[in-house]
Amino acid sequence: MKIALLISTYNWPEALELIFLSIKKQSIFPNEILIADDGSNEKTQKIIDKFKQETNFNIIHVWQEDKGFRKSMILNKTIAISKADYIIQIDGDCIIHKKFIEDHIKNCSKKQYLYGSRVNILAPFVDKIFQHKFISFNCFSNEVKNKTRTIYLPFLSNFFKPQNKISRKFRGCNVSFWRNDFISINGYNEDFEGWGREDSDLAIRLLNNGIAGKRLKFCGILFHIYHLEKSKNNFEKNNQIEQLTINNKIVKIEKGIDQYL
Q1: Phi, psi (5° rounding) for residue 57?
Q2: Are strands 119-121 and 86-91 parallel, antiparallel or unpaired?
Q3: Long-range contact set of residues 126-134: C-beta below 8 Å, sequence gap at least 24
């Protein structure tokens, strides 16, 4: 089974550098590192080039022109060229626990996707973690909120069973799925532009297609770096698209990954 770690990013090379540092510490390495870049400038390219020079990872950087928030499109383009069987997806503002990839691999199963929690790094400490390149946190760390989410007891995760409905705990910054399951619903819906709902819409359509969602708790931990909220100008339109998915039990959308396969 080939594993890809998929990172969506946009013009935050400082955060991407910390992600790369946390990848180096993983107990199990991915076969591919996929960077879905929604139009970043050359500073991001320099960080990626530096990481390539320092490691032997198979790094695939897919870039598109900056025409606003088009996360669905760049994720589809990136997954389309992946050779992996299984995709572990994070956002470009999240540092991963040293067992993160291993936890997703150990818990993956056919007819199932996984989603995990995030531990929030507090705003007053963001400059500090960049300056000192902090990538490791625990329940005693002053830098984090939600301290109980840092507790690593993976055997307890077995008590969480797959569910056939979307969870209020679902976060698109920490999710994994089979590439074939993703393709079978035509991937992300590119009708979503601007921030919001593209991730939960994907999860709902997976559920509509018989793919249950299992929560990772006490494992699969990542740390979300505080930042100002993105513009929600398109949120109401995106909300309506997702509601159509729910009401009509939509599985496969028209404008998706098949454009790039």
Answers
A1: -65, 150
A2: unpaired
A3: 126/225, 126/226, 126/227, 129/18, 129/225, 130/14, 130/18, 133/17, 133/18, 133/21, 134/18
Angle at 209 between CA 203 and CA 38, to 5 degrees: 40
112 vs 248: CA distance, rounded Å: 22
105 to 32, 37, 59, 109, 129: CA distances (angstroms): 14, 25, 19, 9, 28
CATH for 3-259 is 3.90.550.10
Strand 94-96 to strand 174-178: parallel, antiparallel, or no bridges (unpaired)? Answer: unpaired
Report, as an integer, the average pLDDT of 208-227.
95
* Least confident stretch, 42-51, 208-217, 232-241: 232-241
Average pLDDT over residues 166-177: 89
How confident is the model over 19-57, as pLDDT tens digits? Answer: 999 999 999 999 999 999 999 999 999 999 999 999 999
204 CA to centre of own chain: 16
CA 115 to CA 159: how far, in whole Å? Answer: 15
Q: At which residue do the structure tokens 């390539």 appear?
A: 52
Structural contact between residues 89 and 116, judged by C-beta atoms closer than 8 angstroms: no
Kindly provide the residue ranges of all beta strands, DSSP E only, lying in the chain, ordered along the sequence.
3-9, 32-37, 59-63, 86-91, 94-96, 112-116, 119-121, 174-178, 212-216, 222-225
Using DSSP, how many helices (H) and how many strands (E) does the chain show? 8, 10
Give per-residue pLDDT as tens, 65-91.
999 889 999 999 999 999 999 999 999
CB 77 within 8 A of CB 178: no
CA 159 to chain centre: 23
Whole-prediction pTM: 0.96
| Identity of the amino acid at 241 | I
